[in-house]
Design brief:
The complex is a heterodimer of chains A (233) and B (423). Helix content of chain A is 25%, strand content 27%. Chain A is built from 8 helices and 11 strands. Chain B is elongated, with a radius of gyration of 28 Å. The chains are: A alpha/beta (233), B alpha+beta (423).
Chain lengths: 233, 423
């Protein structure tokens, strides 16, 4: 059990003390493995339901958050650092530092449509209905092509939308493509190559520079990835 | 008419637009007190107050503010059809005044301001659409001593504000511009590069350099920028990536400023970051941002802007800083800062008693808060306790009853005056 009363009041926070936001779900297992390797492994509680966890290093604590919330925790400074997918970061457009790409969580944000869809450029679609969990990136992708898409924002199971004729296309994360195929969908275009990124709060970056520097250096040794945040044309 | 909201109703009218706040009681008093502290600090360094108008011609305010700030202005139309805008910052009005009204005054000018600025922006962390900036502008002084003075005064102002700890990150746009000059690329092509540097994202930076086809020592130099942060040793590391005299001169200047900061004794509060390249597009020399524990965003920003004043009239080198008053208040509160309590010294029930009214006036002129009880009937001591007043005075014409610390005393008006003299 983590004693929350130990948490220093925001203002007098010990500059050596770090709070790191981790994304629940897809990235969590690889993030755990990476942190373990870097010497900052998570110490689990008994219940597996705790949201604040200690680490192998006494001055580092973890907060488990929904992936899309990680950038918010870090921008506000509630957490000093966080691990998030580049897809989530570019969708959230929060004001963060991204000092390190982490060598896991590789996937792509892609436009997909029914397998039987005629092979024609997306820019010829007049007014496609597009279901997605990434409305900003989706809108940017289509508007850059002059296409006025109707963005249908869903919270999950986006592949369902074309099946029940809610949408013509979907924009979603693709790892192997098996989920798409199982639902009769084919990948059409890649919007963004994503991977896990270590993000940092701008104030913490200055005020806790030694502690953050040591943390970043340990993770950097894991090896850096190759993907970038540039959208593909 | 707007009803007080007692139960949630999705259809009830909203009394305020998004992004503005009502401040009252302790919050209003704390804000005014902080503004007073900052004014006192600025005056002590021989800065004089400038009170510019809240709105001006939009064209004036949009001058060189950078695309983003111009997009964020609240615009409206004058009766003669000209577009006006609420000021999105106070540096531009200060530059305009310096160039068009004060251009023949002995230089340098030292101006300060405290006031609201208005930005129509999407809801973001820690931002309102109306917020208060307190700032200084040192206009007509080009020497490193001017940069150092603004930095040292900023540190002093943040100390005076009561923050327990803070850090300024100091960059040098002239160093970065020296690098960019080698690229020979149009400004829009550099957006990707600046975004990557701003986020310190190594992969985006590499991609941007690929796109600009940058290779060799220049690529190494730009790639090294995000790591050029820390103490004065950064200046030595910066030397190793200099590719032209402009960059070397930019570092020489930073070294000279650092000498002065050492003499001011403020180097603990200031660190270097040559990769700090963002901010308003009008900065030409040093640029800096301040941070404090308890708040995830900057509390001040400033820098040298030698090209801005000339946009309005006679050119002048200039350097300045703006402090975000509302954010400083919030940070200070999170750091455990205790405001002075707001309470009357005495609650006083009297009618047409000249002795009482005169004594109340005397006390008020001494600076004590004395509140007239207008309720009449009921328990005066209880009302005094509720108002936090340590004393309650009940006058019945010839004599008074003073209640304080749970004790009631019957006194003459003369005795009361003697007692009150000790409050």
């Amino acid at each position: 059990m983590v004693d929350l009363a130990q948490r220093p009041a925001g203002g007098r926070a010990d500059p050596n003390h770090l709070v790191v936001a981790l994304p629940k779900g897809r990235l969590l297992e690889e993030a755990r493995a990476g942190l373990e390797q870097a010497g900052y492994g998570l110490r689990d509680g008994d219940s597996g339901r705790q949201l604040v966890l200690p680490s192998a290093a006494p001055h580092v604590r973890y907060v488990l958050a929904k992936p899309a919330d990680v950038p918010v925790y870090v921008e506000y400074g509630a957490c000093d650092l966080g691990i998030a997918g580049l897809d989530v970061l570019r969708e959230a457009q929060r004001d963060l530092l991204e000092p390190l790409l982490l060598p896991f969580g590789h996937c792509r944000l892609a436009v997909a449509g029914p397998i039987e869809r005629a092979d024609r450029p997306l820019r010829l679609e007049p007014n496609p209905r597009v279901a997605t969990k990434f409305p900003r990136l989706t809108e940017a992708f289509f508007r850059q092509r002059g296409v006025s898409a109707e963005i249908i924002e869903l919270s999950g199971s986006v592949e369902l939308a074309p099946l029940v004729d809610l949408a013509d296309l979907v924009v979603d994360l693709v790892q192997s493509g098996q989920t798409l195929a199982a639902n009769g969908l084919a990948e059409l275009r890649v919007i963004l190559h994503s991977q896990a990124v270590l993000v940092a709060n701008r104030a913490a970056w200055r005020l806790k520079a030694p502690a953050i520097g040591a943390f970043v250096a340990s993770l950097r040794d894991l090896g850096s990835g190759r993907a970038s945040g540039q959208s593909e044309a | 008419m707007i009803q007080p909201v007692s139960e949630f109703s999705p259809h009830a009218p909203w009394p305020l637009p998004q992004g503005v706040v009502d401040l009252f009681y302790q919050d209003a008093a704390s804000k005014r007190a902080l503004e007073g502290e900052l004014r006192g600090c600025f005056r002590a360094w021989s800065y004089d107050e400038l009170i510019p108008p809240s709105f001006e011609y939009a064209d004036t305010l949009a001058a060189e503010t950078g695309i983003q700030l111009a997009e964020e202005m609240y615009r409206f139309t004058d009766r003669d059809g000209r577009t006006l805008a609420l000021r999105p910052d106070l540096t531009i009005p200060a530059a305009r005044v310096a160039a068009t009204r004060l251009y023949d005054q002995p230089m340098p000018l030292r101006l300060f301001y405290v006031g609201s600025v208005f930005r129509y922006e999407a809801p973001q962390a820690g931002r309102q659409r109306e917020f208060t900036q307190a700032g200084i502008e040192l206009i007509g002084a080009a020497a490193p001593a001017a940069d150092a003075e603004v930095l040292a005064l900023t540190v002093e102002a943040l100390r005076a504000a009561g923050l327990v700890q803070f850090q300024l990150a100091l960059g040098q746009m002239a160093f970065f511009h020296g690098l960019l000059a080698e690229l020979d690329a149009p400004a829009p092509a550099l957006h990707g590069l600046q975004g990557a540097l701003d986020r310190k994202n190594p992969a985006d930076l590499a991609a941007a350099l690929d796109q600009l086809a940058v290779a060799g020592p220049l690529r190494q130099a730009i790639s090294a920028l995000p790591d050029l942060q820390g103490g004065p040793e950064v200046l030595a590391r910066g030397r190793s990536i200099c590719v032209n005299p402009a960059m070397a001169a930019a570092l020489d200047r930073l070294a000279a400023i650092h000498e002065l900061l050492l003499a001011y004794g403020v180097t603990d509060e200031i660190s270097f970051d040559l990769g700090e390249t963002r901010g308003m597009e009008y900065y030409t020399g040093i640029t800096f941002k301040g941070y404090t524990p308890g708040l995830g965003f900057s509390i001040c920003s400033g820098g040298r802007y030698d090209d801005l004043v000339g946009h309005f009239g006679r050119p002048q080198p200039a350097v300045g800083c703006a402090l975000w008053v509302d954010r400083i208040l919030l940070a200070r509160q999170r750091q455990g800062w205790q405001p002075a309590p707001l309470r009357p010294e005495a609650l006083w029930a009297t009618g047409a008693c000249p002795a009482c009214l005169r004594l109340m006036l005397d006390l008020r002129r001494r600076g004590l808060r004395v509140e007239l009880d207008t309720a009449g009937a009921g328990d005066l001591a209880q009302r005094a306790a509720r108002r936090g007043a340590p004393h309650a005075v009940q006058c019945d014409g010839d004599a008074v009853t003073l209640t304080g610390a749970g004790q009631a005393q019957a006194l003459t008006h003369e005795q009361l005056a003697e007692t009150a003299a000790t409050w």
